[in-house]
Structure formats: C-alpha cells, structure tokens
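Deliverable D2.4 — example input (structure tokens):
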C-alpha cells in the first residue's frame, strides 16, 4: 500500500507544481491586452456597435480572475457620439480547483463600478436599444447546428461570493415627449449566493426628473431565501425608506415600508404579510400643508384563480380610520369584481375639513361634529357601489344604497332614506342685515350672474332620497321624496313631493342641455297650504294668513340670470281663503280717506294692522320676462278689490293698480263709520323698484268718481228715472228728450208735425229751469 500512496503523492505534487508554475508563468507569458482588437471586433460583430476597452488584467490561481477597465459600447446610429454604455471597472473570478475536480462553479465577488447607461428615444419614437433586441431575436430564431448542445449553467450549480455594483447611473431621455429622467447614483450589494441558502440584498438609488423637477431617494434592504427546486422565494424583513422632493410640485415626502413577500412561482401565488406603510408629506400642494398616511394589512394574489384577498386592511389618513376586507376575482379579465365590508370609525367631519384646510362656515357651529359609516363594498376598476349603507351624521341616520356605475361618466345611482335632516344647520350663517329684499339703489347686477350650466350638464344622477322630516331655509317638511333622473344628452329631471303646513307640495324641475343655450322648465303645485306659518318660517315675516294654493308652469333658457329672466314664459295662479294681509288696515286707510274727503283730521289708528279677506286670488301670464295680471280679485265683508298691472322681471320694476271698493255693509272689519264711503273705489298704485315699490292712494281719481256718481244720482232724481236706470247712456238719452221738449214743446199724439223752420224762428226763451239743467248736463261724463 505504501508504494501506490507514494505514487499518488508524487503525481499530486507534480500537478500542483504545474498549476503553480502556470499561475505564475501564464500572466507573464500571456497578455490579454494583446487581444483587445479581436474582442472589439467580436463585440461589433454581435452588436453592430463600436466597442473599446482599456486595461485587461488576468489572474489564474487560486482564482481564474479577469478585470477590465474603461469599457465603452457605442450608441446606435442617429443618437450622437455619446456611448450607449460605459463601465469604469469590472472584475470577476472563478475558483479553479473546485471547477477542475468537482465541476463546481465558485465565483468570487462580481464587482461593477461606474456603470453608465444612456437610453434614448428620438422624435420619431425610435429607441437606441431596439437594434440590439432585434439582433438577439434574430439569433434566437436561428436553428441550432447538429451536435450543438446547451452549455448554459443552472443557477443551482452556481456559488457566488457576492455582487457589488457601485456608482452606477442611468439616463433616459424622450425627445418625442420632451422629458428626461436619470438614476444617479445606484448602489447594489448582494450577499453570498449559495443554493438553498438565504442572502442579503441592499439597494440605494437616487432618481431625478426634469419635467417636473423632482428628486427621489430610495433605500431598500431584505433577506431572500430561495427555493430553486420548489420555485418559491421568500423576502423577509423588507424595509424600504423613501424621500421625495418636488420643488415645482411643492412636495416633500418621507415614507417607510415594511413587509414580508412570498412568491410561490410554482403555485403561482404571491403574498404580502405584515404590511406596514407610512408616509408623511408636506408642501404647498398638500391639503393643509402637511398630511400623513398609514396602510396595513395582508394581501394574497392567486394568478391561477385570477383572484386576490386583502385582509385586515386598515387605512389611516387625515384623522380617518378605514377598515376593510376586500376580495377580488377576474382581475385580468374584462369584468373584474371586488367586494367586501368597509367601515369608517366615528370621526369629526369638521376636524377633517380643518385638517385639509378647507374653509367651513355653518349656521350651527356644532354641525358636522360626528359621523361614521358602514357598508358592503362591491365594484370593479370602473365602478363602485355601497350596499347596506349605514351613515350617521350628527343626529341624522341614513341608510340605503349608493353607487357610481361608471367612473368615466360619473354616473351616480342611489336609493337612500333619512330619518330627519335640519339642512339649515349646515348652510352658511346669515350675516347681519341679511334680507330677502333687495334694497333700492343696489348697483349689483344680478342679471350678469352666470348660471351653473356646466355643473348641471355634468350631473349624471338617478335615484330617490326619502326624508322623514326636513328643514330647509326655515321651511319644515315631512314625508319628503326627491327623485333625480337624467344624464348624457337626456334632460336632468328633479321631482319633489312633500307634506308641509297642512298641505302638499309637488315640484318638477327640468334642465335640458343645449349646444349653445340650455333650456329650463318648472312646474310647482302647492295645495291647501297654511300660509301664515309657512311665510313666517320662510321669510321671518307674518305677512299673509289663510289657506292657499299656488300653481306655476314656467319655461325659459339662457346662460345667465338675465337671459333666464328675459326668456321666461308661462303662467302663475294662486288663491287664498279666509285669511288676512298683514302690515296695513284697509278699513283704517279708507277712514282716513273719508276724513280727507270731508276736510277733517285723519283719525288715529286703532285695531289690528291687517286686512281680512274671505277670498283672494289672481292669475298671470309671463311673456319674455314680463308678468301681466288683470284678474286680481279679493273679497271681504268690508270691501271688494280688483287689480291689474305688470311686473318686469328683467328690469325689476312694477306698475300695478289695486282697486278696493267699500261694500254696503258695516259688519266687516272696520266697516262701522264708513257708510259715506259706500261704493267708493280708491285706486292704490304700486310703481318703481320691485323690491321696494312706491305706493300711492289716488284720492283725486276717487273724488272724481265719487262726484260723478253723486251727479248721476242727482240727475236721475231730477229726471225721475226709475231705480236701476241711471247709467250714463240712459241719463244722456233722457236729457236729450227733456231738452227737446223744452226747445220744441211736447209732441201731441195724432197731431201733424209743424214745419221745423217756423218754430225755430218763433221759439220762446227757455224756462227758468233750463239754465240749471244745462250746466248739469255739461258736467255729465261723455261717452
């Protein structure tokens, strides 16, 4: 046994000696720099690009190691002289003994320093790397020659001490888009790569953009456990830190990301566990100047089933805490589906708006102090719906369904029910001196205000909202139903029905988009409305009482308030029963008029400052913004009233005359003591600004009418006219007959008439009564 062992030692020693001699002699006898020309020609043959390399160093034992510097690969034609790729230093080595004895590939650390890549697209969209891809594709399509074998080395057979890439950079410019991006520097450290063993990875990179100007820094570390046989890769302790700055965007952001990633390539499942993402951002582009975001949960994607699960999802932002579990299916198809419960923990909307720096002023400072939401979410990448919605806002509870059926068209569908809403709490507060009336001399031109036509055209909503009790602008309603419909080219229609103040209201509002001028239509029907509390709540004034009805049927078109007014057409009708007009006492006014007629001092005001009526009605037509009414009628035990006139809604002027007449009774309000005014009509003229009109009692016309009536009565008495036959025409006829009798004498029956010329020349002077009658006839009104 000794001799064979001795022979083995001699042979082994000889081989080792030969390797030592080769390791020393080969670098001395062989200079790889002598082959730089051949290397460049070979690269150009493969790539079609010029190639140059600097110094090449070779080391043989114990590692077969090659190191080169200053390598450059030329750019594609038409992209200038700047190299496509440059390498400052590149080094790699293979351990000889394991390769020769056990066919094991043990690679020393692969080092790459100063790598620079310049990627570009020209104005025509052609890239400077497409020719390399085309050459490689053409080569892969060529059939292998007979006897040629696949000499690729399997990853599981490779043992690499590590990979180090330092000070690398990449620049991408797009002449077609006018944008450029760069990565500089990029540093990557990968630990020892051994089959089945975990290794560490560290990456830090800085990227910049020129349009807009922005910079982002990323630091990433993780430990990867590869299972090459099972095609399963686990990334533990993934930690990423990012900093971003965009001067033009007004943004500064810092964020961290922690998670575990499991990629089971064989099973085609990918999981993210222990997700913990946090982001803090500040700057002028951030609502409120500064915000933070936290995201947690677990995500699993099944590529085979084309499904995903997001469990224990939690999102925290701007004071909101949202929890959810989402399941998805058909994610790569045309109709993906997402579903799951979603909840928003109680929060303060007022504080949320404050955090987002959104101004808020409400009439009630305690409004928007508490809200929460629960619902079942369902949707896709193009739509979303909340079913089983439970929304609480302050004292209001809302439930039902809310959906956006198309994100692109913003199509909204809803079916909601609310118990009670006091909308006035959420309206802006009224400033001191707010009034529904427009003061005289107000120079603001409301007619120039543009209507929200663009917002109305974008409105695409269909659904119903039922409210048990609603308060809006002081008006109290119950059993409210609001229905919206329309979108696209279809008219936007709003239907409202409700119970209010003992009666009902129905409203139909229609908006039809137009290429140039949109059109509007409004129909309103108020029935059996108790006017006093309604107007008190609406206007804060008790101006009219009674049971009322109102009908509106209006159409118009236009882009501004002025165009809307000028194009207004339609009809208006109302009636009130058993009520009163507050603010003036018509009986008192008539008594004052009576005193003026008699030349006496006006009596002091007594009693309620209101005018009772049993019925009060009017209708009007509107043509091109001008309202005309000629049938105002009011009746009470004291008076009857008619009226006519018009209102110019564009110019905001009124020209109207009301004509109250005292009736033959003294039992009505203030009727006692007005016997002398019985039958007197006193015109009341309203004129000037619609919101602050001037009114005038036309006493002069009243006196003329009264004198005329007295004269008619006196003449009728003198002429012995029967009662009821005292019209102007009858009086005139009787006067003509009397005058004829006085001038020509009474005609006798069966006596021939005498020639007309003779009596004329012999006529006697008129009787003494004729001179008195003649002036009376002259004062009589002419037809």
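Example output (designed residues):
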């Amino acid at each position: 046994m000794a001799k064979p062992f001795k022979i083995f030692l001699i042979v082994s020693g000889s081989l080792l000696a030969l390797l030592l001699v080769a390791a020393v002699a080969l670098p001395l006898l062989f200079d790889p720099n002598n082959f730089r020309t051949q290397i460049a020609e070979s690269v150009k043959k493969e790539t079609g690009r010029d190639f140059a390399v600097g110094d090449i160093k070779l080391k043989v034992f114990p590692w077969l190691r090659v190191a080169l510097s200053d390598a450059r690969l030329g750019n594609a034609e038409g992209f200038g002289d700047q190299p496509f790729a440059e390498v400052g230093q590149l080094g790699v080595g293979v351990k000889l003994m394991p390769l020769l004895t056990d066919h094991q590939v043990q690679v020393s650390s692969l080092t790459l320093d100063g790598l620079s890549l310049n990627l570009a697209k020209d104005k025509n969209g052609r890239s400077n790397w497409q020719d390399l891809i085309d050459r490689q594709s053409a080569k892969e399509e060529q059939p292998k020659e007979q006897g040629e074998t696949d000499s690729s080395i399997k990853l599981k057979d490779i043992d690499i001490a590590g990979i180090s890439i330092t000070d690398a950079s990449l620049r991408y410019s797009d002449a077609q888009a006018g944008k450029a991006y760069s990565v500089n520097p990029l540093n990557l450290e990968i630990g020892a790569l051994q089959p089945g063993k975990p290794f560490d990875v560290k990456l830090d990179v800085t990227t910049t953009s020129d349009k807009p100007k922005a910079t982002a820094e990323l630091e990433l570390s993780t430990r990867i456990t590869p299972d090459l046989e099972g095609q399963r890769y686990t990334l533990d302790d993934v930690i990423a830190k990012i900093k971003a700055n965009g001067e033009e965007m007004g943004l500064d952001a810092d964020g961290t990301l922690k998670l575990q990633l499991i990629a089971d390539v064989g099973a085609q499942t990918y999981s993210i566990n222990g997700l913990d993402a946090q982001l803090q951002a500040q700057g002028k582009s951030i609502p409120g100047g500064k915000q933070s975001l936290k995201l947690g949960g677990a995500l699993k994607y099944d590529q085979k089933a084309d499904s995903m699960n997001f469990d224990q999802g939690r999102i925290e932002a701007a004071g909101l805490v949202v929890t959810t579990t989402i399941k998805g299916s058909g994610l790569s198809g045309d109709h993906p589906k997402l579903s799951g419960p979603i909840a928003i923990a109680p929060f303060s909307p007022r504080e949320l708006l404050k955090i987002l720096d959104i101004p808020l002023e409400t009439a009630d400072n305690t409004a928007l102090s508490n809200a929460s939401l629960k619902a079942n979410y369902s949707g896709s990448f193009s739509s979303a719906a909340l079913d089983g919605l439970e929304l609480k806002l302050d004292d209001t509870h809302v439930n039902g369904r809310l959906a956006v059926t198309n994100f692109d068209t913003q199509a909204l569908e809803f079916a909601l029910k609310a118990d009670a809403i006091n909308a006035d709490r959420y309206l802006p507060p009224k400033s001191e001196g707010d009034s529904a009336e427009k003061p005289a001399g107000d120079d603001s031109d409301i007619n120039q205000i543009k209507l929200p036509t663009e917002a109305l055209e974008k409105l695409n909503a269909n659904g119903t909202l039922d409210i048990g009790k609603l308060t809006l602008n002081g008006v109290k309603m119950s059993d409210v139903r609001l229905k919206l419909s329309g979108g696209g080219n279809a008219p936007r229609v709003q239907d409202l029905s409700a119970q209010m103040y003992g009666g009902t209201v129905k409203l139909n509002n229609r908006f039809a988009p137009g290429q140039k001028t949109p059109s509007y239509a409004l129909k309103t029907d108020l029935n059996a409305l108790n006017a006093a509390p309604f107007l008190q709540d609406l206007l804060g004034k008790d101006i009219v009482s009674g049971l009322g009805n109102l009908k509106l049927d209006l159409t118009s078109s236009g882009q501004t308030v002025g165009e809307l007014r000028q194009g207004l057409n339609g009809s208006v009708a109302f009636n009130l029963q058993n009520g009163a007009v507050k603010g003036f006492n018509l009986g008192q006014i008539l008594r004052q008029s009576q005193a003026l007629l008699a030349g006496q001092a006006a009596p002091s005001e007594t009693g309620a400052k209101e005018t009772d009526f049993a019925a009060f009605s009017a209708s009007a037509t509107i043509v091109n913004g001008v309202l005309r009414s000629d049938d105002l009628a009011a009746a009470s035990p004291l008076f009857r009233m008619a009226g006519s006139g018009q209102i110019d809604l564009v110019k905001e002027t009124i020209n109207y005359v009301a004509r109250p007449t005292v009736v033959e009774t003294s039992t009505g309000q203030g009727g006692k003591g007005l016997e002398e005014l019985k039958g007197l009509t006193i015109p009341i003229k309203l004129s000037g600004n619609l919101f602050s009109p001037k009114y005038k009692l036309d006493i002069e016309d009243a006196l003329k009418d009264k004198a005329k009536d007295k004269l008619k009565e006196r003449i009728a008495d003198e002429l012995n006219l029967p009662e009821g036959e005292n019209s102007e025409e009858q009086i005139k006829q009787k006067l003509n007959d009397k005058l004829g009798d006085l001038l020509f004498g009474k005609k006798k029956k069966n006596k021939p008439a005498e020639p007309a010329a003779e009596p004329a020349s012999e006529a006697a002077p008129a009787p003494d009564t004729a001179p008195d009658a003649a002036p009376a006839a002259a004062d009589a009104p002419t037809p």
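The two ends are 163 Å apart (CA to CA).
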